[in-house]
Design brief:
By secondary structure, the protein is mainly alpha-helical. The protein has 16 helices and 2 strands.
Length: 420
């Protein structure tokens, strides 16, 4: 890779960090200049990146890349129209650079696949640093030292390297708190999604290079489990199932068959744990601190283990029944609280047509992913990494941030390289 290519990847990684690091969620806490810098970077970095990397026009004219970009563009335009009627156009202007960012990343990965490898290594390093933060917080009892508050989130000072420990859980039977690995993410669910995704990316790198990437993958998966997130468990299960059912069959050995059967059972159990684990533990009044921590129940007597998600979904469905165009992008959700779930969020914002367009965009991506996974051994791990991110963002996310866009660009770019 040239210095120019590496610089482009670093810019992509910076854009990824801006949407993942919690300090960029609480801009007011860091002052006016930091706020201006953050918004300017979100707006201008995609433009700088596409100027720096150029655009591969062939990707815009034919194949699945052209179809995906077309549907993506129509979706952005529809959200803009609804927002113009009902919402805040400044919010829409913050959304549009992500399409530009996607095209720039797509063009770079198509031209230089090694750029994606470099990006994957940066993500893995970021996750491993979060694991180091987690270990040091326990080693130096950072959770009991004086903490500082950044944007409303507790951070344990220099010994914990200022990681987010807001989601610690306390149980009477344990004298120290159970820390949920969060690193610099806003909350453990995001950390889990990134960590599990990084684990699959490490497995992909194992197929491309010599090295101990399989061991590194285990550390990434460990980091994801330490986040103690139901959304993360669900996302991991989806990633495992993608690997099992979509991967190119390199061998039919008995060991591989047994591995896939055992992993299928594990994935099914994880899905059950994600959906019903809290309800089961609460209904059966299980007081074991480890089990309650595993399913994410912080205390006894929780009446709604799903924290109002189903009630919120019902409200949004009723809202769309009366407002089929959707709410548009708003500064606040006014009478209806918006959902953190990607698909429900865009249903609320874009109405019926918005939901159809976002689903159609993902169908195009899934078709490309299925074909790519069959091309050569190892590519399925990129698909699994994307499935993890999308699964996690079904609970907390937007299907529109760099975590999703970068992996989607890689899949479509590699699909196009194998086709043409």
């Amino acid at each position: 890779m040239s210095f120019k290519d590496k610089t482009a990847v670093v810019l992509i990684f910076i854009y990824w960090i801006i949407y993942e690091n919690f300090i960029f969620y609480y801009l007011a806490h860091f002052g006016f200049l930091f706020t201006i810098f953050t918004y300017a970077t979100k707006l201008l970095l995609p433009i700088v990146l596409i100027w720096y990397t150029g655009i591969n026009l062939a990707l815009l004219r034919k194949g699945v890349s052209s179809l995906y970009i077309s549907v993506f563009t129509v979706f952005i335009a529809w959200i803009g129209l609804v927002t113009l009627v009902n919402g805040d156009m400044l919010r829409w202007l913050q959304l549009t650079p992500r399409l530009v960012f996607f095209v720039a990343v797509l063009s770079l990965f198509y031209r230089k696949p090694q750029a994606f490898h470099f990006f994957a290594k940066l993500i893995i390093a970021y996750v491993l640093f979060a694991l180091l933060q987690y270990i040091l917080t326990y080693v130096f009892a950072g959770y009991s030292n004086p903490v500082i508050v950044l944007g409303g989130l507790k951070t344990p000072g220099i010994y914990g390297l200022y990681s987010n420990i807001t989601s610690m859980m306390y149980f009477p039977s344990i004298q120290f708190p159970i820390i949920r690995l969060s690193g610099f993410w806003n909350e453990p669910s995001n950390a889990a999604g990134s960590a599990f995704s990084a684990g699959f990316l490490a497995l992909y790198l194992q197929t491309q290079y010599e090295g101990r990437w399989r061991g590194i993958a285990k550390l990434c998966f460990l980091s994801g489990f330490l986040a103690l997130s139901n959304a993360g468990y669900f996302a991991l299960a989806l990633g495992i199932l993608a690997w099992i059912f979509l991967g190119k069959k390199s061998t039919n050995s008995l060991n591989l068959i047994l591995l896939k059967v055992s992993m299928s059972v594990l994935a099914i159990f994880i899905v059950w744990l994600a959906f019903f684990g809290r309800k089961y533990v609460q209904s059966n009044e299980i007081d074991n601190a480890i089990i309650r921590g595993l399913v994410g129940l912080r205390g006894a007597g929780v009446e709604d283990v799903y924290v109002g998600r189903f009630f919120l979904l019902q409200n949004i469905i009723e809202f769309i029944g009366n407002n089929p165009m959707g709410s548009g992008l708003l500064q606040s959700a006014s009478d209806v609280k918006n959902s953190a779930s990607a698909i429900v969020q865009w249903f609320f914002v874009g109405g019926v047509l918005g939901l159809v367009l976002i689903v159609l965009r993902e169908i195009v991506l899934y078709a490309a992913a299925i074909k790519l996974a069959q091309k050569e051994y190892g590519l399925v791990f990129i698909v699994s990494a994307l499935v993890v991110v999308m699964g996690q963002q079904l609970s907390y996310g937007s299907w529109m941030n760099p975590s999703y866009l970068i992996l989607a660009a890689a899949i479509i770019a590699f699909n196009a390289r194998h086709k043409y």
